[in-house]
Amino acid sequence: MIIEIGHFALVLALAVALIVSVVPVIGAARRDAAMMALAPVGSLVLFALVAFSFGVLTWAYVVSDFSVKNVWENSHSLMPLLYKYTGVWGNHEGSMMLWLLIVVLFSALVVVFGKNLPETLKANVLAVQSWIASAFLFFILLTSNPFIRLDPAPAEGQDLNPILQDFGLAIHPPLLYLGYVGFSVCFSFAVAALIEGRIDAAWARWVRPWTLAAWTFLTAGIAMGSYWAYYELGWGGWWFWDPVENASFMPWLAGTALLHSALVMEKREALKIWTVLLAIMTFSLSLLGTFLVRSGVLTSVHAFATDPTRGIFILGILTLFIGGAFVLFAWRAPRLKSGGLFQPISREGALVLNNLILTVCCATVLTGTLYPLVLETITGEKISVGAPFFNLSFGLLMIPLLLAVPFGPLLAWKRGDLLGAMQRLYLVIGAAFVAGLVLYYIENGGPVMAALGLALACYLMLGALADLWYRANFGKLAFNVAWRRLIGLPRSAFGTALAHFGLGVTVLGIIIVSTYQTETVVEMKQGSTAEAGGYSLVFDGMRHAVGPNYTDDQGHFSISKAGVVVADTWSSKRLYTARRMPTTEAGIVTFWLSQLYVSLGDPMADGGIVVRIWWKPFILCIWGGCLIMMLGGFVSLSDRRLRVGAPSRKVKVAKPVKPVMEPAE
Amino acid sequence: MTRKQKRMAVIAGGVSFIMVAVLLVMFAFSQSVAYFFMPGDLKTAQISPGTRIRLGGLVEAGSVKRDAGSTVTFVVTDGTNTVPVSYTGILPDLFREGQGVVTEGSFDAASHAFVADSVLAKHDENYMPKEVADRLKKDGVWEDGSGKGMAQPKGEAAGAIKP
Description:
- The complex is a heterodimer.
- Chain A is an alpha+beta fold.
- Chain A has 19 helices and ten strands.
- In chain A, strand 3 and strand 4 form a beta hairpin.
- The N and C termini of chain A lie far apart (59 Å).
- Chain B is an alpha+beta fold.
- Helix content of chain B is 24%, strand content 26%.
- The interface between A and B is large, with 61 and 48 residues.
């Protein structure tokens, strides 16, 4: 019965979403306060209904109600409780429910935090959010209903895909979706601005916190997904340029660009049209990602099930929203007045360069991801575009951006001084070169790329610190005065520095891992030894173990350095009994920032076993850097000036004096 | 420089960056794209040794042999034609005889055998690589929903280790 109520709540949600999609827009056009007031109330009701429905589905999982087809297909009574909760979104229907839940959650957040938004803008934004929610409600109800019943109810479920029975599933999809779908708010703000035909610095100030929040979650989601793939798949890789990874990476690139261009718009009232376009593009890429993942058009590790009707439906949603938004853009954008002139060498100029490179890089990834698809449709030829393509094209194009990063914050708005910035950075550049040379010396030559890469990473990290150093005016002022200035800097300054520093840390990890990692594939028998990364591994033998819903064959390895045992690890081959599906559980040992990664292969006829051992130096920097970037996002988000509701008062005063709003600085 | 000249310089800079990007993408495509073939295609297509391709099909039942060390040889078939493949490394968990597989590598000039450097593994036990499934469906060898059907794993514990 409760299942049917959940289903009914979803249908009711669709009705509410349709009302909120239409009435407030008409209200905003007619300046009808009552009609506009429907938007916040409707959005909150919508959230409550979808949350209830989602809760019902979760309940069905927790009590293992196998009369629900979705639960039967993806759960098992013996599954640990945590995975019963997370299993809700470990399948197509459930993950679409999560998608929907997050769209309406963001609508509700706009209501809660946007108390001071102008009525018309708020009504339009919430209506656009409801368009998205309606489209996905239709999609779920018509093609991917999670509440379908089975009669008679099976006694036991088919179990969740073992790869997904991991703590990673608990956090990766929700974080990723918070990012992905969070950009819907930017999209809604952009479309609402186009509907109103008016846009100003205050608009940018409202949009920026949402962009920042979505970006922060997306960063976390991608990093988490990367680490999960690394430890769970047993292939030892952390990024595969898999189409689905690209699908989440493209909105990240576009979102990063948006974050920076919204800054220009907020501070200088320039790049208005571009910022609106970018907001539309970012969410379009999120939708495209959803399409690529959910339709099964791509060969990917994330494609659960292929059902052509779903693909066509999502393609329809995609066309409708992207096409519609671009038509609206083409029609309305000429009405938006742009302003704010600046010299090429200036903070704005640097941010334009950032945008240029990020969007071109994003286009490169898009090309590489879609080209096989397009070619197959046109000529029928099947090709694969893999890591070498992306490393060559994307990798090279990113270098100028990385070189420019430390310069950006040091240039003044409007008219910057490149020579001055250079003078401030010469110590940083020098130190980075020294670091590269030291590495080159230690390694007795070694790969030149590694030395240059290390120099680049150091340059990024030190450059971020130099920004804070010069802002606080260390060196010119007395230490304690400068220290007080440093403490008093706006949090967004720390956010910027942290994010740029984190980028450097990630680059460091990528460079070191890709040049110095070692891989050893060796057949081992009990008592035999292998070497990796200066450690010796002794294979002590196998044992058999039984878990709640799997059996495990575990190999034990003792790891020693210079004859002293420093660590040990279990690496195993696991067989999930319900699906008879084997997985590899790698044994991972962390040494400070580096890791030893041991995965078991097949047993040999003579009693030995193939073992693959990777030495991954500095690999934790890759995700550590992402965590620092994320921290930067949160610090920046906590800046008083950026609080979601904060800009309101200023705007209320400013609105009547329409023509030109003076930027805050 | 006048303002106009400056603006032109900026636009020229932007356009040239995009041009460089386009050229780079085209170059990267020419360098690193691998075409997909099935054993039957290789009779007509001339592939010179050393050219990277993807080879897909089914792993022929009973063809998997392990040499000393970590090299494995197996035969990829599309029902009528076969290609022997050798691979050094650890096979993915879901690699089974009779199941679909996609390997990437090139033909060795001396031995004419296909030397794979990667064997594609996927998350799902019913999974059939899309390229392979499309072709097999066309040839009527395999159909949707029979994921496990034709490939009933003989040693379903192929990946599991008997202590």
